[in-house]
Specification:
The complex is a heterodimer. By secondary structure, chain A is mainly α. Helices cover about 80% and strands about 0% of the residues of chain A. In chain A, helix 1 packs antiparallel against helix 2 and helix 2 packs antiparallel against helix 3. The radius of gyration of chain A is 17 Å and the shape is elongated. The N and C termini of chain A lie far apart (about 50 Å). In chain A, about 55% of the residues are buried. By secondary structure, chain B is mainly α. Chain B starts with a helix and ends with a helix. The chains are: A mainly alpha, B mainly alpha. At the A-B interface, helix 1, helix 2 and helix 3 of A face helix 3, helix 4, helix 5, helix 6 and helix 7 of B.
Amino acid sequence: MNELQVYLFVALILFCLGLTGVLQRRSLIAMLISVELMLNAASLNFMAFNRFLTPEPAVGQIVTLFIIGTAAAEAAIGLSIILAVFRRYQSIDIERARELKG
Amino acid sequence: MEPLMAVIIPTLPELIKFEWVAQAAFYFIIGVTLAGAVSAVFLRRIIHNILGLIVALFGVAGLFIYLNSEFLALMQILIYVGAICISIVFAIMLSDPMYKEDPRRRLTKVFASVLVSLLILAGFLSMITKTPFEAAAQRSDDWTVTTVGNLLLTRYALVFELISFVLVVAIIGAIVIAGQGRKQRSLK
């Protein structure tokens, strides 16, 4: 295992932990936390490829900056949706919010 | 006389092998990151989850330093830990009473979700180990923040404007969504 593969492996484990969290937890905030873990795995991958493979090392940093910015936007929207769901159902358990379920 | 002394008495950098220390710190950071991620996912109190997430984010910032980019490590700490985690903590305080633990899920569901991610782990792992990664021809080895800023305002100017637009839309949307619920409740 060379150094690049070590980074890729760490990012892979982070991603799979986040996926487990999204599938398994039923509290909306815990799911948001898991999504942040998955986004971090993605940016770690970008940075690792940027360090070891790409011709221009500035590009990967820019992509990671965009990922961080998008994550901030996603967290703001997600948290406001969580607050709206909480006001409506008095709970952030997604099993309670099943009005759209057919 | 002097060369003999230098051979016999090792200097401090020889005693502490710095490469060895860096290697050990690297694996320590990886361990911290994974431990934080595990506690962010598997602990059942939401406030422990967010603390685990903060630990994992600090670990990823440390890995960014090992990947040559101190700038992104600082941005990671500033934006993720300083902004996102704090706003999640605010949401926790504004919503459920969080001293309760999550109710236990049925064991079959936990098992199924772990199984799905283990399958994905195995698939990607075989991909990582089998792919021959070959570096492209180096066009520049310029890691500085100056270059990043220059590229952001020249080649990537459109994406830069787009991300600021996305941020504005997100902020306005968050205000609208969070404010609408309050209006509904005051009408009832």
